[in-house]
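Predict structure. Chain length: 375.
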Amino acid sequence: MPKKALLFFDDTHRSPDLRYFAGFEVHDPFIALQVGRNKIGALNALEFGRALKESALDQIVPLEDLTEAARARGVDQPGPADHIAALCAQFGITQLEVPEDFPAALLVKLSALGFDLKVIEGAVFAAREVKSDDEVKAIRAGNRCAAVGFAVAEKMLREATCRGRQLIHDGRVLTSERVRTAIQTACINAGGFPADTIVAGGDQACDPHCRGSGALKANELIIIDIFPRMFDTGYWGDMTRTFLRGEASDEQRRLVQAVAAAQKAALRKIKTGVMAHVVHGECQRVFAERDYVTELTETGAVGFFHGTGHGLGLAIHEAPRIGAVKRRLRKGAVVTVEPGLYYPGLGGCRIEDVVQVTDAKPRKLSSYPYAWELR
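Prediction complete.
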């Protein structure tokens, strides 16, 4: 009977599945095989010693040995396909399963070498959806790191002086870039890397993934979304708060109150076995009851036009998704809950926290105050 294995060729930054499998960080693509329950990695001299100390691999093969084996078979300049073939020959592997994001060119070369190949559709490790106590601890740490960033940002906004519509901090106009740099510096010092932090004010915040640029303005809603990846574990935090420095209008207060109410309604629904679309529907219900319309206009969507949340772990976006999907939430899954409303001319508001699904009320894994109107 043909012998099969699960094959990875990737780095652990790009592939959360490989980070989960190998148990340590490797910045360059490397070969990893799962043969039954046995985890095998092929690493060069640069990584071999560290892999012995840090990885969760059961067996580590020197890449140099595979190079010699490929040359012995007549390959002058062995590449990854030749190394994989040499490693598989050691274990009698003829069938390979690969993730759906496996390199296409390498897949073609392996097929030419005679391997029976199958591409796995969807999750490679379904177990990643349910988080262990250690994973929950790592995600909490990511959110504590994000909270450090929020504290710095809020301090800058509170210290800023309102001069008409301008915000002045330390004698200079306060910009998205200045606040983002302060957040990133604080998060790095706290042990996480906060790539692509969002600090977006006014109409910029109405595009939820706009990072924000230029001057922040008084009396304007400012969305700050911080999602650091922790250096030591590879797990992410993800939190969003909305702020305003100055005096909010009644419309702005009503908008923020609606988003806060929608988040609370969604949180009340989250528990083991609940359908994701039911949680999402709670946010839609709250917004509809308060007359907030979602529609696609000539210049873009307005209202609540994204999902309520997503899974969080070794990837910033992973299973399960909380939106218009008919999928039950599993006990132990970790998800964000982040409703938002966006209307150019009025501004945007999003509030995001992270929770773990339990049989009762969700277990909150993030914490930062919700005070938003900073006078």
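Summary: The longest helix spans residues 133-159.
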